[in-house]
């Protein structure tokens, strides 16, 4: 990021989400986003490969954070402890100021089939990253795959609760709670 | 299906898979598939919306079979018993004669990013169908979501073993075994 364009990524994101909310995702162009942000198209494409990636770019970073936190968990950590550490690491940066933006992203994605599909794919990538990181720690299958699925469910459940209307609790607290509930639910499967 | 075109769907499927294997998925046209099958394009489009759906059309049916089997499980069935019944119902039609075709489909899908993404989406649909069917039986979340994830993992794991080189065991036997392993693995999460 250049010194003379502070917070460009944030400004592009805010401009895009405002425009998507005002006029609908489909009708908004990259040129309009950059105009609203007071930046150039060239700057836009230094941050995002296309308009759609404004909504999903953060998920690449998320997969990396998950994988690294699992790798960095103490050798003595159980699979669920490693997943819990990853959920904490991945959600800790999402303070209350990020909640409203997350709600805006979700509203755009939910109303659009292609975007919803893209989100499902990113979640599949996230689960695969977790499973691979667990296998690299020596966790065998099917435990590694199962732990990753539970981690993915805890993340989406916690996220839904975090962005729910009126929600005020921290994202990290909500994903950890969802994880605890899922682990408890493993005894109710019959 | 018209009386004078017996097994049209199967003939189209065989022709398409043979051509995909010979020349690669991308370069094969619907016209070539219908020519190889000795049928018209109009007949093709009565069975499949496009070339890609030749590879995935069966998965829609699969979601329906899963959901119906879960709905039809005895009222006393636990979530896992309902999932087990669904896995049995969904895989029972896949006898040894279907295994080679499944291998061909998998080979085409694995070599093609767009097709792989489509497969992940169909799997997400399958899991959602199972979770919804469990909720309709009164299974609460997070148990319903968790049971559906485990059912999805059992299905993909059993499928991978079924189409593995040299594999001779029945698909149903392999998915049920994978399910048992996953349920056992719930105690190894820590």
Automatic annotation (TrEMBL), chains A, B:
InterPro entries: DNA-bd_HTH_TetR-type_CS, Homeodomain-like_sf, HTH-type_TetR-like_transc_reg, HTH_TetR. The keyword Transcription applies. The keyword Cell membrane does not apply. Keywords: DNA-binding, Transcription, Transcription regulation. GO terms for molecular function: DNA-binding transcription factor activity; transcription cis-regulatory region binding. Residues 29-48 bind DNA. Residues 6-66 form the HTH tetR-type domain. Transmembrane segments: none annotated. This is TetR family transcriptional regulator. It comes from Amycolatopsis mediterranei (strain S699) (Nocardia mediterranei).
């Amino acid at each position: 990021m250049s010194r003379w364009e502070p917070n460009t990524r944030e400004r592009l994101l805010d401009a895009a989400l405002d425009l998507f909310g005002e006029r609908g995702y489909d009708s908004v162009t990259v040129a309009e986003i950059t105009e609203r942000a007071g930046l150039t198209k060239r700057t836009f494409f230094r941050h995002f490969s296309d308009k759609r990636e404004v909504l999903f770019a953060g998920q690449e970073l998320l997969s990396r954070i998950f994988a690294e936190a699992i790798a960095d968990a103490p050798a003595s950590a159980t699979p669920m402890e490693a997943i819990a550490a990853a959920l904490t690491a991945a959600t800790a940066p999402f303070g209350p100021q990020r909640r409203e933006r997350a709600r805006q992203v979700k509203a755009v994605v939910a109303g659009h089939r292609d975007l919803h599909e893209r989100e499902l794919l990113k979640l599949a990538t996230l689960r695969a990253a977790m499973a691979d990181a667990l296998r690299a720690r020596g966790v065998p299958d099917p435990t590694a795959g199962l732990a990753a699925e539970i981690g993915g469910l805890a993340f989406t459940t916690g996220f839904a609760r975090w962005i729910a209307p009126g929600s005020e609790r921290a994202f990290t607290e909500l994903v950890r709670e969802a994880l605890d509930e899922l682990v408890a639910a493993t005894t109710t499967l019959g």
